[in-house]
Amino acid sequence: MSVLFHSIRGWFVDPRSLIDRGYSRCIQWRETQKSHVKCRFKRQCFQILKSYYNVPASAAVDGGNKEMLQKTEKPPKKRKRKHSELNQGEVDSEAFHKKVRSVILDGTRSLVDSVRSLGYLKEETDAVKEPLPSQECRLAALCEMAKELPLVDDEEQECCSQSLVAEDGCSSHVDLFSRLTENRTDRAAVVTLMGEEYVIPPHTAFLLSDFTRIQPLVHYGRMFDLVVMDPPWENKSVKRSRRYSCLPSSQLKRLPVPLLASPNCLVVTWVTNRPSHLRFVRDELYPHWGVEVVAEWFWVKVTTSGQFVFPLDSPHKKPYEMLVLGRYRPSVDLSTSPSETSEVPVEDQRLIVSVPSALHSQKPSLSEVLKPYVGAEAKCLELFARSLQPGWTSWGNEVLKFQHTSYFTLTPADDGVDVSKDETTEANVQLT
């Protein structure tokens, strides 16, 4: 199961199980030969066994778990501040944290206790000792190189999608940069693209490009009922590490969301804990697109034993991130009220609690959590995606990053392999 527990406070989800949906039956193509395999995301990527810092009992999810608190690592040495006073951004962050602290603490404690009562969140005794996958992602660099290629002209825009695998099983000649690539089959496919092997979920479409080459997505001709995005927000630590290129907030307004969203489309944006980013989304970005803010949710990150991954009151890193949810209200369709479209109201201040990935920038799938608010047949789009989901359309300059086979364990499987009851159920509730 991928949603382990659901209550009025939110959801406790198993992100690895969410990834594995749709991969129980895969076709592996090598040249023109095919074989049947089963793919599982590597377990060690979700083995966050202990908090990153010492956690005082007052800040722990479960204050009685003293043994776990003693096992946490020593805090790093604090850098000396040039000024003792907080800057305005830090003052705003602290004020916001105080406002939501009780929601985070009480909601997480309730969800963690409920999941424990069901037999989950037990201390792992068989942890995988293998190192994390360290595949070098060159996709963003390839997108830069692709800018030298001519744009597809207007006549060819009518054919803006292509099949992932040709009839002869070949995938090496697929144009990933100027057309959407579709896996139109009921099974995942392990294929070679640009000299690397990737696992592509069933009934999915993707475009590998950056901001300057997003036109094929617009010309794709599909209007979406759900748009999720995780922008590369400007961040000092990211700039220092050079893990990925940041995007100025003002540039996000150029995203063609009004051309991609159907009326009352649910728009969901991952936001860092900087208050300036939250204000920008609420007061500038969403109004610019015609999106009405309807709720703010929190993703809370806990260890495999249920402790916050960072102290709740840490002045440096918080154990939660935000999501801003809104509904697209096109001005040309003012005659249609939400009640006439059977729109499901979105509750405010819900929590999504999970063990996070140890891989940088990998977020949990929101498909099951958001399904009640958009419908089981909703057309779903992810912008700035770094992975693919069954039934979804995805765009980004690293859209295949976590689909690389180095992140999966592939095992041989018979063509007639039985799919477990849970996998069958999960496959039947996918968003399309």
From TrEMBL:
The gene is METTL4. GO terms for biological process: methylation. GO terms for cellular component: cytosol; nucleus. Residues 64-88 are annotated as: Disordered. GO terms for molecular function: nucleic acid binding; RNA methyltransferase activity; site-specific DNA-methyltransferase (adenine-specific) activity. It comes from the Eukaryota. Residues 64-75 have a biased composition (Basic and acidic residues). Pfam families: MT-A70 (PF05063). This is Methyltransferase like 4. Belongs to the MT-A70-like family. It comes from Amphiprion ocellaris. InterPro entries: DNA_methylase_N6_adenine_CS, MT-A70-like.
